[in-house]
Amino acid sequence: MTTVEVEQGKLKGARIGDSETDYVAFKGIPYARPPLGILRFKAPEPPQDWEGVRDATAHGPVCPQYNDRLQRLEAGSEDCLYLNVYSKTLAPPQPLPVMVWIHERAFQLGKLLGLETEDPQALSTFLKNAPVSDLVNIKLPPIETKHKDLTDSILFGPVVENAETDVDHFITKPPPELVRSGCFAKVPIILGFTSGEGMELGKHFPANLNLLLNTGAVVPRELKLTLTEQQLRHADIEIRKYYFKEKPLTADMLQEVVNLETDRLFVYNIIRFARYHSYFTSSPVYMYKFTAETERNYVKKFYKMDSISGCCHADDLYYLFNVTCQDVPLTSNSQQIIDNFVQMWCNFAANGNPSNANAVWKPFTDSQRNFLIIDREVECVSNVDDENIKFWENLYNEADLEAR
User: Fold this and answer.
1) Where is the Carboxylesterase type B domain (predicted)?
2) Residue 36 CA: distances (Å) to CA of 32, 105, 201
3) Confidence at 115, pLDDT banded by 50, 70, 90
4) pLDDT given for residue 59 in this prediction
5) Residue 96 in domain
């Protein structure tokens, strides 16, 4: 029996694999008290102790969530604050590097659940008592905004909190303002994107064609909150001229929409953060662009985007993780990519430098914009998508949103 002792008690795990690849696994370890009842939406509280030996050979419940790709509510429980720990050994001679995966998911808005109030206490009480299935059901009516765009369908995100209230705070100023002032952790990071991130929103096209025809629909939200009506119309015209080649948007322009959303919602702001990071700290930032397209690009195939160039949002994860919940093939086409990708991430966790024998991954700076292109071969190049990035930098400079 594989047993360890942690602060709350003893855990029984399991040894998995064969003699060459075996490792120990401890699953379903509570890292906080179950967030049920009055603890819903609260900061996590320490887990309770347990008596005897806790069985840690099975995963804990997953969080209730709506599967956007399968269009269904997945079974789960709010009692879901568990982690799984995997290690090659229980008694390493020195501490081992640790990699933690934190997945993302969407939530919902109180107004859409039937509550009209500006009373934060009333909203909190309402949300604590709402059925969890309602909180994760995304088939609810969209919010009405003056200038609609695709990000209006993003259900819930962080908000700027009142710094004067007597509760724990997470964000007290707009994130772009925090980043521009250097208010972030000064640590080495890897940042990157896939070559076709915008497929995640392009999947709604051409059903949302009329939405995209609205003035301001292609303008990033940060600009819309800053520009005057006249400036907004100008930005809208310039963006359409650049990405749609001065042609009116029609239902057969999916590739153009994907290109726009890739840069507008993903690439520009990722590079923008990398620039600020390199300005405020000497800690390196390593940038990558994932361009590989093999049989493992599951999301792109699921969205039926085979005719569109690029690697879809989240398809890079199928090269980093051994996905078993979906039928994702593994062939010689993808094995080399996987070997490079995984080794570089492990190198970064172990020593802060992701380079391996196949490529020297140079850090990104504002003056030396180095990127690692990840495909069947890996190569470090400079100024990726430079023309597109300069277009967005000019737009943001005109709005006085590029302080550095």
Assistant:
1) 105-392
2) 11, 19, 33
3) very low
4) 94
5) no
DSSP bridge partners of 370: 382
- Mean pLDDT on 38-47: 89
Q: How far is CA 114 from CA 140, 263, 333, in A?
A: 11, 35, 50
Which domain covers residue 115, as residue numbers?
104-137
Structure-token pair, residue 116:
């009209």
Q: What is the DSSP track for 206-227?
A: TTTHHHHTSTTTTS-HHHHTTS
Crossing angle for the helix pair 254-261 and 229-243, nearest 10 degrees?
120
- For residue 188, the number of C-alpha atoms closer than 13 Å in the C-beta half-sphere is 13
- Tracing tokens 């029996």 back to the chain, one arrives at 1
Q: Which residue did the predictor score with more confidence, 71 or 336? A: 336
In a domain, 361, yes or no: yes
d(CA 85, CA 83): 7
- Whether residue 108 sits in one domain with residue 19: no
Q: Which residues on neighbouring strands pair with residue 371, listed in sequence order?
A: 381
* Per-residue burial over 39-66, b = 16 or more CB atoms within 10 Å of its CB, e = otherwise: ebeeeeeebeeeeeebebeeebeebbbb
Is residue 168 in a domain? no
Number of structural domains in the chain: 3
371 sits in which H/E element: strand 370-374
Residue 316, H or E segment = none
Pair of tokens at residue 169 = 């705070």
